[in-house]
Design goal:
By secondary structure, the chain is of the alpha+beta class. Helix content is 21%, strand content 38%.
Length: 142
């Protein structure tokens, strides 16, 4: 009988890939038509990324901006939909361009289908990193 990866296990695996700075591996966990949303995105930052290619472009240079060291306090909650989880976590590390500490609290609502992320709503606080050094918009100005 084939085994499947539970959404919580897939998510934990994705965190290990981010810590290893394996962005191509992380992107490979996405469905071709996956959607990543940032409901609290400030002006000039993307609010919605549609498709694996757009997500890959957004994440490509992530390790050049943020050096993640750990995800302490990860709490994954199952929902009434077996493919959807709610994640509370903290990401800690440093901002690469400045060397300043990075400590961000996240809440994410993540949906998985066929062992791939199909939807990821990332509720993070952009005010905590509003600096030109951390710009994932793909542009040099905001």
């Amino acid at each position: 009988m084939p085994t499947t990866t539970a959404p919580a296990d897939l998510y934990r695996h994705s965190l290990r890939l981010l810590l290893a700075k394996d962005i191509p591996g992380w992107v490979a966990l996405w469905a071709d038509d996956g959607v990543m949303e940032f409901p609290f995105a400030p002006p000039g930052w993307p609010e919605r990324l549609e498709g694996r290619e757009a997500i890959a472009a957004y994440m490509r240079d992530y390790p050049d901006h943020i050096d993640l060291h750990d995800f302490p306090d990860v709490r994954i909650h199952e929902s009434t939909d077996p493919g959807t989880i709610v994640v509370e976590m903290r990401g800690v590390g440093r901002l690469v361009p400045t060397g300043d500490p990075f400590d961000m609290t996240y809440i994410a609502v993540v949906t998985v289908q066929d062992e791939r992320f199909t939807s990821y709503r990332d509720y993070w606080n952009p005010l905590a990193v509003q600096t030109p050094a951390v710009d994932f918009t793909g542009s040099s100005t905001r």
